Amino acid sequence: MVIIHYFKLLAMFLVTSILLTSAFSAAHSKNPSASSSIEHRVDSLLTMMTLEEKLGQLNQLSGRWDEKYITAEDSEMIKQGRIGSFLNVAGATNTRKVQELAMKSSRLRIPLLFGMDVVHGFRTIFPIPLAESCTWDPVAVQQTARVAAIEASASGIHWTFAPMVDIARDPRWGRIAEGSGEDPCLGAVMAAARVRGFQGDDWRDPSTIFSCAKHFAAYGASEAGRDYNSVDVSERTLREVYLPPFKAAVDAGSVSLMASFNEIAGVPSTANHWLLTGLLRGEWGFKGFVVSDWNSVAELQAHGLAASRSEAAILALQAGTDMDMVSRIYQNELVTMVCENRVSEDLVNQAVRRVLRAKFVLGLFDNPYRNSNPAREQSVILSKPHVDLARHVAQKSIVLLKNDKNLLPLSKTLKTIAVLGPLAEDKIAPLGPWAGAGRPEDVVTVLEGIKSKVSPQTRILYAKGCNVNDDSMGGIVEAKNVAQQAEVVILVVGEDAGMCGEGACRSRLDLPGVQNELVKTIVETGKPVVMILMNGRPLIITWAAEHVPAILETWFLGIQHGHAAADVLFGDVNPAGKLPVTFPRAVGQIPLYYNHKSTGRPYVDDNTSTSKYLDISNSPLYPFGYGLSYTTFSYSDLLLSNSRIKANDSLRVSIEVTNTGKVKGDEIVQLYVQDEFGSVTRPVKELKDFRRITLNVGEKRNVEFTLTSAQLAFHGRDMNFAVEPGTFKVFVGTNSAELLETRFEVVE
Ligand code: GLC
């Protein structure tokens, strides 16, 4: 009997180690045998660890940004093996010093994991993720994440708390800036691209860093767009809207996820066993580790879920939250809880295994200082290729919202240009929220970009006009006088970086302060006005949309904001960005998104007995997927390979796209589908694929897509994911509102 038992154990060990290889995606390790040796090393280390040392691996503290970077108390805890990770300790030299404490003074010499929010660049700051998503270009997005990893890893960072993949349908929520907008398909593509960029394809490459898909899950559905607020979505909405980008991140091999602050239908994610263990590990097969959000373990008490810190510790650990970010609850409460048998040490061991496995995979036990390399740091930070990429991706992130009478592009030899507005020479706003190690001195302002672009004979006049967010009107008259001296006015308005990101939610979304008054005053001069928006969310710009002839949405584009904006303003780059999020006409319309349900009384403008308002139409100011170009494109000949298919068949969709304008340009061709009838109601349309193409003047291109059953399936009445027979509409076009359509049928 004993022999059989032994062979069963051996078989289980071998199967486990083979399965775990997938956790860190075998492609990475290049030598699959490494995984079994890693499991062996984890096992043998675990047997040597005290309970305090195990809990140390689950304890993450934050460094200080000032020169002291960690406290004397932290240093002592490192020597005692009671800290496993730090966030906000960066720099090749800093991290080496802190790592040396663990490697030279602690009993077991377990290396520390250094994490940081490297969300859209480390020192070379790229466009905010919402802006980058306007490129609809996963290759470009993967490249910027790769550069972020190259720079962060050279400065001691092993792990970034990114990509943020929260779907957001409410622009009042400040963190919409950090994600990829309202659509699960585009969000999933961007999530996978960023994971691939951060993690690279070989753990032995010192430039790879762990990604951390966040915030798991449905944080973007916070009620009323108020940060940290309650979320109450159905499981079907969770699975169809909010989870796909996380699944894409897990499938792309993300080594970690971060549990979100919010509850979902009464259960805070940090303590949600169904989410963190049942779905993430059971259904999806995730083998990495989960970190809490900042202090979110302790916040289970404020949620009213845990009556004490020790109960919070138990609930979070049992749910599947492996590492406790800064609350210290695991470190301080779980020893007693294990000793009193209120939580099993096996749960602690499982969490510790996941963390140790990650440290082994990253090679930290073999080279704990692999990322603390001052020479590499010096050579890669802000290198020319990195800065060039920042400019290139910033150009692609710009969305042309309006261009009446082809006012744009401007001539570089205009005699006099007035550059006005509170953000024209702002060096901080372009960095956006979560600006990593970015510095204002690295930023090219819009004013600088314009000055470097125009001819030596062109006179550039400047006036600030007003501040971003106060009611002082004193500068408006001066701005008006400056405008009257110019042939064209470029007006740079919007939000400052502190008005979006975490905790920065707004109840009103129009231009802050007295910027609207500035815009109206300048428009009333009768001069041709180009409005440049610098912002982190859709704004209510309904008046400007009617009265300003040209509008460029430039978001926060990072260190090359000014050059990229000038490249587009003066025609060196033809803009092709498309909105990843709907622009409403009024806050009262929110939430307003394209993939809505039909309802039993679909909107009819002049019928109050339909789903509508008395005082405004349901239509957005600018729809999802919208963006203009300096050229024009026409769509024709939408064809399907079949009009009837079986559930498991795929369907080819083709369309002709022609550049009917006067300049070469990129177009992002979008494919949407509507399942017209189902066992549950379905959205009026859903993005299923897209293709960015470049067309010369007069060039016609046949663009083909393949629709698969996985793209037609959904969670039916029984929650099974399947394709249901029936008629489907296929839409292809330039945005979610301007589309050609046709139909096909799925038959049994
Ligand atoms: C913050 C954010 C999270 C970030 C973490 C560490 O509260 O919610 O996105 O990664 O703390 O800075």
Summarize the structure.
The protein has 748 residues and is an alpha/beta fold. The chain has 24 helices and 26 strands. Helix 1 crosses helix 3 and helix 3 packs across helix 16 (345-361).
List the helices and strands and how they pair.
Layout: H1 2-23, H2 26-29, H3 33-48, H4 51-57, E1 59-62, H5 72-79, E2 85-87, H6 92-105, E3 113-116, H7 129-132, H8 138-154, E4 159-160, H9 184-199, E5 212-216, H10 235-242, H11 244-251, E6 256-259, E7 263-264, E8 267-268, H12 273-283, E9 289-291, H13 299-302, H14 309-319, E10 324-325, H15 329-339, H16 345-361, H17 374-380, H18 384-397, E11 399-403, E12 416-420, H19 446-453, E13 459-463, H20 476-483, E14 488-494, H21 515-523, E15 529-534, H22 542-547, E16 550-553, H23 561-569, E17 633-640, E18 644-646, E19 651-659, E20 665-675, E21 686-695, E22 700-707, H24 709-712, E23 714-715, E24 721-722, E25 726-733, E26 739-747
Parallel strand pairs: 1-2, 1-10, 2-3, 3-4, 5-6, 6-9, 12-13, 12-14, 14-15, 15-16, 18-26
Antiparallel strand pairs: 7-8, 11-16, 17-19, 19-22, 20-21, 20-25, 23-24, 25-26
The structure holds alpha-D-glucopyranose.
Alpha-D-glucopyranose binds at residues 87, 117, 161, 214, 293-294, 502.
Overall form: globular
Mean pLDDT: 95
**How many distinct helices?**
24
| Helix/sheet category | alpha/beta
Hetero groups in this structure are: alpha-D-glucopyranose
Strand order of the largest sheet: 11-16-15-14-12-13
Name the helicity range. 25-40%
Number of strands: 26
The number of distinct structural domains comes to 3
Low-confidence stretches: 1-6, 15-23, 25-33
Identify the CATH architecture of the largest domain.
Answer: Alpha-Beta Barrel
